[in-house]
Write a structure and sequence with these properties.
The complex is a heterodimer of chains A (about 140) and B (about 375). By secondary structure, chain A is an all-beta fold. Helices cover about 0% and strands about 45% of the residues of chain A. In chain A, strands 1-10-9-6-7-8 form a six-stranded mixed β-sheet, with no helix packed on it. In chain A, a hairpin with a 7-residue loop joins strand 2 and strand 3. Chain B is an alpha/beta fold and about 375 residues long. Chain B has one domain: Thiolase/Chalcone synthase (Peroxisomal Thiolase, Chain A, domain 1, 3-Layer(aba) Sandwich), CATH 3.40.47.10. The interface between A and B is large, with 44 and 38 residues.
Chain lengths: ~140, ~375
């Protein structure tokens, strides 16, 4: 078992000496940004031009839905959000610290990425995980 | 190149048939389609069989074990919810290419109940409800909310799609349900993923549909032109790159691309179409496709549903079968079932839900991931 939390997804990076961040890859030919690792660019087809990039922790809410029915053990309701990060990259995650009510959620609202324990979820070896969430920016 | 015609087409009544096997369900539709044109399995030169749930299970061959093992080539097709349309298109392609002049396309699915999608995969812990939601109701709710963001589309407008399609299905004995669902019932049904309530989600059902496709020469030779339906366009697209498509599957761009290609192939425009069966896997999705298929300007889809343009009797009736929302959505069968629906109207055989004077119709499916299949059909002259 790991003595530190593991990243919930491979594109969440947890440096030994620094803050966690979301990593993307950017095409040096056309500038397209991808979450996670890419060898080639699926926008322009360029090869060998993908460079790792640290995505911003600030962005705005692009779209969302409010989930009322899920699988057993998953707490509802919650807001499933699509967020455009400043400087490129679109990420999906839970929008927290907001009422799950469409009248309280505005398209384009500024949000920030926060990192926290993955809702207590552990794998079969008992490892804990670190995940990311979005919350309204004040 | 020859023209290709649908000469026989049918579907079983959609429902839940756990006592049957997938090949048995497919065989029922295959026999119905053969009977529709008075032909036998021995007349078929190839079989294109669409199924998702048993994609590695040689469903087409097992179907022939139910109705006649003639040794013809069998192609098993899997392409998400575009599976049936893709099988039909492969069959059409083989006739257009003059490899064969009489072929069979079948789509079949046996479904469980409950939420589709959201299973995640990969190692570690489940991501559902941790990194948003990947269930189909959520994915299509988010696609609908993008439309709300851009055009102010309301929950009520999305819900009206369900009212309309459920109403249409009351006139279709082959639909899973024949139940009126007034607006307040749709809007107050259990919320699954806002803005999609339970009645705004397609129904998981078992079903099958089949079509016999013939070259023009063969259709004439067999005396089948009276009820034949000409395939004016067959188009399949995948999703071009979009900046958000890694986390937000884009069903719009691939549909627009397919629609443009299909109208071009047919030499027609949206104004020439008399009825449409489109991919209403969720009520939110139908609204998007009014614009994607060019039925109205971008931003006018909400008005289209408000004004009744897309109802039976309206300017361009959409999903008069009841759609996936009420007829049901057996994933691999859907693409051929909507070809059955449009063909039935073009033949003037749709009974109470008949679109008066229907001459040209369009079918559309989306397989998330993504694939878009569009067919334009016309009553043979």
């Amino acid at each position: 078992m790991s003595d530190k939390p593991l990243p919930a997804v491979p594109y969440l990076k947890i440096p030994d000496d620094g803050e966690p961040f979301i990593e993307g890859h950017r095409c040096s030919s056309c500038g397209a940004t991808f979450l996670g690792v890419r060898d080639n660019c699926s926008k322009c087809g360029a090869r060998d031009g993908m460079k790792p990039v640290r995505l911003s922790n600030q962005g705005e809410l692009y779209s969302y839905c409010i989930v009322h029915r899920s699988f057993p053990g998953i707490e509802v309701p919650y807001v499933s959000a699509i967020v455009d990060l400043d400087g490129g990259g679109t990420v999906k995650g839970n929008l927290i610290n907001v009422e799950p009510d469409p009248s309280k959620i505005d398209f384009g609202m500024p949000v920030e990425v926060v990192y926290d324990d993955a809702l207590g979820r552990k794998d079969s070896d008992g490892n804990s995980y670190l995940s990311y969430f979005f919350q309204p920016r004040t | 190149m020859t023209d290709a015609y649908v000469v026989g087409v049918d579907m079983i009544k959609f429902g839940r048939f756990p006592e049957k096997t997938v090949p048995q369900l497919g065989a029922e539709a295959a026999l119905l389609a053969l009977d529709d044109c008075g032909l036998k399995i021995q007349d078929m030169q190839a079989l294109y069989c669409g199924n998702l749930g048993q994609a590695s299970g040689m469903v087409g061959q097992r179907l022939l074990q139910e109705i006649g093992q003639t040794g013809i080539p069998v192609v098993n097709v899997s392409n998400a919810c575009a599976t049936g349309a893709t099988a039909f298109r492969e069959a059409w392609t083989s006739v257009k290419a003059e490899l064969y002049d009489l072929v069979l396309a079948v789509g079949v699915e046996q479904m469980g109940r409950g939420l589709l999608g959201g299973g995640g995969g990969g190692r570690g812990i489940s991501k559902e409800g941790l990194l948003g939601s990947g269930t189909m109701p959520s994915v299509f709710a988010e696609a609908g909310m993008e439309h709300s963001r851009n055009h102010g589309t309301t929950f009520e407008q999305f819900a009206k799609v369900s009212v309309k399609n459920h109403h249409h299905s009351t006139m279709n004995a082959k639909a899973m349900y024949q139940i009126e669902t007034p607006l307040d019932v749709v809007m107050n049904a259990e919320m699954i993923s806002y803005p999609n309530t339970k009645l705004m989600c397609s129904v998981n059902v078992d079903g099958s549909a089949a079509a016999v496709i013939a070259s023009e020469k063969k259709a004439r030779e067999l005396g089948l032109m009276d009820r034949a339906v000409k395939v004016r366009a067959s188009v399949l697209t995948s999703d071009p790159w979009q900046e958000r498509d890694l986390v937000m599957p884009d069903v719009n761009t691939c549909t627009r691309k397919a629609a443009a290609a299909a109208y071009d192939m047919a030499g027609l425009g949206p104004d020439d179409i008399d009825l449409i069966e489109l991919h209403d896997c969720f009520a939110t999705a139908e609204i998007l496709h009014y614009e994607n298929l060019g039925l109205c300007k971008d931003g006018d889809a909400g008005r289209l549903i408000d004004d009744g343009d897309v109802e039976l009797g309206g300017r361009i009736p959409v999903n008069v079968s009841g759609g996936l929302l009420s007829k049901g959505h057996p994933l691999g069968a859907t693409g051929i079932a909507n070809i059955y629906e449009v063909s039935t109207h073009l033949r003037g055989e749709a009974g109470k839900r008949q679109v008066d004077g229907a001459r040209i119709g369009l079918t559309h499916v989306i397989g998330l991931g993504s694939a878009c299949g569009i067919h334009i059909l016309e009553k043979a002259a």
